[in-house]
Specification:
By secondary structure, the chain is mostly helical. The chain folds into two domains: about 100 residues, Arc Repressor Mutant, subunit A (Orthogonal Bundle), CATH 1.10.10; about 60 residues, no CATH class. The strands form two sheets. It has a two-stranded antiparallel sheet with strand order 1-2. It has a two-stranded antiparallel ribbon with strand order 3-4. Helix 3 packs across helix 4. It is globular, with a radius of gyration of 18 Å.
């Protein structure tokens, strides 16, 4: 598939569980380890239903554009923290442990009592501000709604203030 710099749903997309994505977005994970997680998710969740892929170190290095030694260190860290597990059939292959309750890093979704409430309130607030309502399962957004949401985000980015865990963080 030719990459144009203008992604479209028709060209393929990765379906990931919201709960897993929320756990990842608030987990304390180093950037190289996160790149390996992203590669793993692309080749597990992004290859259709009931597809589960385990990759080797050299495949991670190629796909994440990292040096083999960086991949080795990141994989060791991911294994120690139980975010990745070794494939039982082939010990040279690794895969994502989707059960974030087992991860040995701080995960706000699991460890902070009010995180789910804050997240839920923020989603509802931002949907209300954009004037949109959540889609029904199975529906796709109309093209004009997607363009409008993009315009709102671009305009709001300059002076946005996000309330996160009762703390205001200014983004500029």
């Amino acid at each position: 598939m030719k990459r144009t710099g203008h992604p479209k749903r028709e060209d393929g997309y990765t379906m990931i569980f919201n709960e897993l994505l929320e756990a990842l977005m608030c987990a304390d994970i180093p950037k190289r380890a996160r790149r390996l997680i992203d590669v793993q998710m692309r080749f597990s969740f992004g290859c259709g239903p009931k597809t589960f892929t385990s990759l080797t170190k050299s495949e991670y290095a190629t796909l994440a554009n990292l040096d083999w030694s960086d991949v080795h260190r990141a994989l060791q860290w991911l294994l120690e923290k139980k975010i990745f597990e070794q494939d039982k059939r082939d010990m040279k292959r690794y895969r994502l442990n989707k059960y974030y309750r087992d991860w040995m890093v701080q995960v706000g979704l699991r460890d902070l009592p009010d995180y789910k409430n804050h997240l839920s309130r923020m989603v509802k607030k931002h949907l209300r501000l954009s004037g949109e309502t959540p889609e029904q399962p199975g529906e796709t957004p109309d093209a004009h709604l997607v363009k409008r949401q993009t315009a709102i985000w671009q305009n709001a980015r300059r002076n946005a203030v996000i309330l996160l865990c009762n703390r205001a963080v200014a983004i500029s």
